Amino acid sequence: MPDSPIFTYNQPEENNGYLLWQVSMRWHLLMNQRLRGVGITLTQFSLMAGLYWLDRQGELVTQQRLATYANTDKMMTSKVLQTLESKGFLLRSDNPQDGRAKRLQLTQTGEAVLREAYALVGQVDAGFFQAIEPDSAVFNQLLRQLLAASGG
């Protein structure tokens, strides 16, 4: 067995990816705990919010378009949308522009849940990011840079 260490740093906290993962996992956990109160997960909230935004922009939203917009895996998106449909939060109807694809729309119940969930998400965000509030503009700029640099 080689005597040299695998990692080039002394502690995992010295690694940007590790820190990002830890922060992301903590934020994700807090969001899911809070969203449980309205019966959805953060992933479900994110897809419902994406559907809402695209629909508000006048787009005819398909599963493929929503997955691309949300940077989510197609199969996972399909399963989550099935769950949301079974809960009565969205409808899939015929797409007048493409007979192979279905049009997605939030139901009134779905919009009500999204509105309620958004209030909870805002509360979690306010508490979670409070520690960096003075630097939030810089933080957001750095996140946008990372997103753009990674093709997102």
Automatic annotation (TrEMBL):
> Has keyword Manganese?
no
Q: Does the keyword DNA-binding apply?
A: yes
Instruction: Name the Gene Ontology biological process terms.
Output: response to stress
Give an example GO molecular function.
Answer: DNA binding
Highest taxon of the lineage: Bacteria
Q: Which InterPro entries match?
A: HTH_MarR-typ (IPR000835), MarR/SlyA-like (IPR039422), WH-like_DNA-bd_sf (IPR036388), WH_DNA-bd_sf (IPR036390)
By its UniProt entry, which SUPFAM superfamilies does this protein fall under? Winged helix' DNA-binding domain (SSF46785)
HTH marR-type domain boundaries: 13-148
Record key words, sorted: DNA-binding, Transcription, Transcription regulation
- Show the stretches that span the lipid bilayer: none
Fetch the Pfam families from UniProt.
MarR (PF01047)
- Protein name per the record: MarR family transcriptional regulator
- Origin organism is Spirosoma rhododendri
